[in-house]
Amino acid sequence: MHELSIAMNIVEIVEENAATHEVNSVSDVEIDVGRMSGVVIDALRFALEEAVKSSVMESATICINEIPAKSKCLACSHEFEPNDIIAVCPECGHLYADIINGKELKIKKIKFLE
Ligand SMILES: [Zn+2]
Questions:
Q1: Which of 2, 9, 97, 103 is the most buried (most CB within 10 A)?
Q2: 3-class SS at 71?
Q3: pTM for the whole thing?
């Protein structure tokens, strides 16, 4: 399961951060997941419930932010929200657009327990 390895990766990064700061517990973790990242948020949330067990994140509040997708037309620079992988510009009908938002998968914030 793709999301489980991502969840384990997140826990690993948080544990490394906690070790660097010499803390044993984390109170809050905020994660940004883009709509175009290919990650199913519900599956990730479920995977995290398993992955955090006996880690520094065990009692942490996990907040997952869904980042909407955004594309920029390569022809007219119009920015729009694509509803598919192949995005057609609603302004000029150009087929190619750069995805400028929505591919992110990152830990935005880690709050340690004082
Ligand atoms: Zn365009």
A1: 97
A2: strand
A3: 0.84
Distance from residue 81's CA to the centre of ligand 1 (Å): 12
Helix or strand holding residue 7 (H, E)? helix 2-20
Report residue 83 as tokens. Answer: 């509803």
Q: Which protein residues have a CB closer than 5 Å to ligand 1 (ion)?
A: 73, 75-76, 78, 89, 91-92, 94
Taking Cα atoms as reference points, which of 13, 3, 5 lies closest to residue 60? Answer: 13
Could you name the CATH architecture of 2-112? 2-Layer Sandwich (3.30)
Per-domain boundaries in the chain: 2-112
pLDDT mean values, one per 10 residues, the chain (114 residues): 91 96 95 93 96 96 95 95 82 91 94 88
**Look-up: residue for tokens 């990730």?**
44
